Predict the 3D structure of the following.
Amino acid sequence: MRAAYRSKGVFVSSERCRGAIMLTSLAAAFGCVMAAAYPALAQPQASDLAGRWMSSAADAKGQLRYDLVPCGNGWCGVEVKEDKTCGRTALRLDAGASTQFGVTFFGSFERAAATQPYAVKAQLYVQPQPAAPSGLMLFVQGSTDGNFQPFRRTYPMQMLMTRAGDAVCHAEQRTS
């Protein structure tokens, strides 16, 4: 004989209660197993920015490559040409600030020499499903408005980059 309980005006059988408890227990156990199997992601540091970075998509000039190296009080992105030689400094970033999502940098990006630079924000983070062996990703977005506007709806320049090795190029020294 089944026992029935009255709960808020509805009769609930003990079998139904037992099934709900079992399902809740299984869900909790599955969550614990997944948490143990999927290690916590390491928080990147500003120093993790050092290295060669490649864009995930090619443009008219091919796949973009930059060696990001320390320069002054921040970071410089030296263009790496198709023949693997070092070019000019195209990206300049500040020292960076840690956030809950990774490290955020602000600066400027000049895609081609003598063009109007983009005011940019770069976000360094760890990708949960790594597209690169290091798992590090760099997302750069900006506009030519002069100052980076964080609440803008769209950005004319967006670049997703993966770390592709150690930097070989060095930043040019500024004379002024």
Notes: The chain has one helix and eleven strands. The chain has two domains: 4-37, 46-165.
